[in-house]
Write a structure and sequence with these properties.
Helix content: 25-40%
Strand order of the largest sheet: 1-2-3-4-6-5
Strand content: 15-25%
Structural class: alpha+beta
Distance between the termini: 24 Å
Number of strands: 11
Shape: globular
CATH topology of the largest domain: Aspartate Aminotransferase, domain 1
CATH class of the largest domain: Alpha Beta
CATH architecture of the largest domain: Alpha-Beta Complex
Largest sheet: 6 strands, antiparallel
Number of helices: 10
């Protein structure tokens, strides 16, 4: 069984044995020879991902096939070459009892490299101010803790026993620390706010308008108190939601793809409901189809639709 704590491509591949592991190694090496030197590997949606000015390609091992996720544009472009493989709008299924289709994969990677080579990444600092000193201060504080640094949702998040404790970010007018269990903190300094009322039940923020306002001793105390809330088992339990059944396009996709259905069934009823409502809320069929292709890699990775907000 694939665990949810993987953070590197090596860890992902090492969860497999024998032929499946060898297959993944070959695919990884094949892609590596075709991407620019500046491309990087990461784990996204619990799948090996190659990034080059954005997500270039994902791949993931399933029971009987390797899933390749290069994006709808690439799949449409190579439709003729892919006619012998089962495809959806965003995924290609390669049976692992067949040789790796090296030329097709290389052509797809080259196609995406050319598409992304001139793409400009977001200029985070443009609207987030210059908070270098604040970042450095927080890094020094974290060295004094036993928290584990993980990369989630585009930011460094520090965890304890697998639970999120603290993260931070600089914006145009303020630098914010967010405490994931902040609702349980005593808040002696009376500084914590709920930035998204009604959406984040436990998370609280501490904002600073200048690095001179950041008292490392007080921040450390809040972090240590946050750690204690986890040790004490304090958490807001998600409310139970009534079970609803898939219908329409989602039901058709589940019935036509047993692997997809198996992954969907491993999700909690609440996460299943999120996906069902996400598809059902779309008014037009083309929007439903687009959303369906978006969520397939997430479901294959055993991720909930709104996990990044929790």
């Amino acid at each position: 069984m694939i665990t949810s704590s993987i953070s590197t491509v090596d860890e992902y591949i090492n969860q497999f044995e024998g032929a499946k592991k060898a297959y993944l190694i070959q695919v990884r090496q094949l892609i590596a020879q075709a991407v620019p030197a500046s491309a990087t590997e990461t784990i996204s949606y619990q799948m090996p991902t190659i990034r080059f000015n954005g997500n270039l390609i994902h791949f993931a091992m399933n029971k009987q096939h390797l899933g390749i996720y290069p994006g709808p544009e690439a799949i449409a472009h190579f439709a003729a070459q892919l006619k012998n493989f089962k495809t959806t709008k965003g995924a290609i299924q390669i049976p692992i009892d067949q040789p790796i289709p090296e030329k097709i994969i290389l052509d797809i990677v080259d196609f995406n490299v050319k598409k992304l080579k001139d793409k400009q990444g977001p200029n985070w600092h443009k609207n987030r101010g210059n908070w270098l000193e604040a970042e450095e201060l927080m890094q020094q504080i974290m060295l004094k803790t036993t928290l584990k640094k993980e990369f989630k949702w585009g930011s460094d998040i520090y965890t304890h026993k697998g639970k999120n404790v603290i993260g931070w970010g600089g914006f145009k007018h303020f630098f914010s620390l967010w405490f994931y269990n902040g609702v349980f903190l005593e808040d002696k300094e009376n500084v914590l706010i709920s930035a998204s009322e009604g959406k984040t039940k436990a998370l609280r923020q501490w904002r600073f308008e200048d690095v001179s306002e950041m008292d490392s001793t007080k921040i450390e105390a809040y972090i240590q108190e946050s750690i204690r809330t986890i040790d004490e088992g304090k958490e807001i339990k998600p409310a139970k939601t009534p079970i609803i059944s898939p219908s329409g396009l989602l039901l058709e996709a589940l019935q036509s793809d047993q692997v997809f259905q198996d992954h969907f069934r491993t999700l909690t009823p609440g996460k299943q409901k999120e996906y069902i409502q996400y598809i059902d809320e779309a008014k037009q069929e083309k929007t439903k189809l687009s959303r369906l292709e978006k969520i397939k890699p997430m479901i294959h990775a055993n991720k909930g639709l709104n996990d990044k907000y929790k």
